Amino acid sequence: MKKLSILCVIAAVLIIGANALAPSVVEQGLYYALSDNMEIQPADVQVTAQPGLKVLSGNLDSVRVHSQKFKVKDMTFDSLDCSLQQTRFSLLSGGRVGHMVLTDADSGELTATVRSEELEKFLVRKIEKLSDPTVSLENDQVHVTGTVAVGGFLKAKADLRGTFAMKGSKLMFIPSSMTIDGMGKTFSNTSTAGIEVYDFKDFPLGIQPDSVTMRDHVLTIHGSIHHT
């Protein structure tokens, strides 16, 4: 009888310990998955599950990610806020041990922001065939000026205009027009290729943005999950 009581106490301690530790293990796994794509800190990721053992079935009550001033590839984001409720997850296939990805949520919101000066630096680096580019953002419009080689030897002034928008899973700079002025002649081109800023396709949070707005020199990227 005494041995049975001891075993029951040990089992109860193990269950209580597992309830307390299981969500933190998932927290760490999600942090590892996110840190492959962006420079965030472990404290930026918070996971809740009650009871904690429900994570063994791949279920969570909520996931919250809040980070500031983090890099994704060569773009510095100003902030990221993501809140998801009643979330399902699975381990990443082919990834490092402990990695996991969120597969579904009943509801949730994602908001990321980028300051205009970072977007200007990004476009200066990414726009090809344009020398000494200058970038300015006016409300939701992007204006790029510089010089371009015409015919391999003539330098002409180039004026490129466009907007930032979501195209599928990708945040893109999408040009609307390009005007080249040289030798007293002006040429217009509306078929200039877009420039990819970031692809949310493999984003471990399992949510892709659907809208982009520019206000007060801050680009805001927003997405949501709502099941009806």
Report the C-alpha radius of gyration, rounded: 24 Å
Mean pLDDT: 77
- Characterize the main sheet: 6 strands, antiparallel
Give the amount of beta strand, in percent. Answer: over 45%
Number of helices: 2
Cα end-to-end separation = 54 Å
Described by the principal axes of the CA atoms, the overall outline is elongated
Secondary-structure element pattern, one letter each: HEEEEHEEEEEEEE
Tell me the strand order in the biggest sheet.
1-2-3-4-12-11
Low-confidence stretches: 2-18, 93-97
Helix content range = 10-25%
Strand tally is 12
What structural class do the secondary elements suggest? alpha+beta
Write the topology of this structure.
Elements: H1 2-35, E1 45-48, E2 59-72, E3 75-91, E4 100-115, H2 116-126, E5 131-138, E6 141-150, E7 154-167, E8 170-182, E9 185-189, E10 195-199, E11 211-215, E12 218-226
Antiparallel strand pairs: 1-2, 2-3, 3-4, 4-12, 5-6, 6-7, 7-8, 8-9, 8-10, 11-12
What would you say this structure looks like, in words?
It is a single chain. The protein has helices at 2-35, 116-126, and strands at 45-48, 59-72, 75-91, 100-115, 131-138, 141-150, 154-167, 170-182, 185-189, 195-199, 211-215, 218-226. The protein has 228 residues and is an alpha+beta fold. A 6-stranded antiparallel sheet has the order 1-2-3-4-12-11. Strands 5, 6, 7, 8, 9 and 10 form a 6-stranded antiparallel sheet that branches. The N and C termini lie far apart (54 Å). Residues 2-18 and 93-97 have low confidence and may be disordered.
Jot down its keywords:
single chain; 228 residues; alpha+beta; 6-stranded antiparallel β-sheet; 2 helices; disordered N terminus
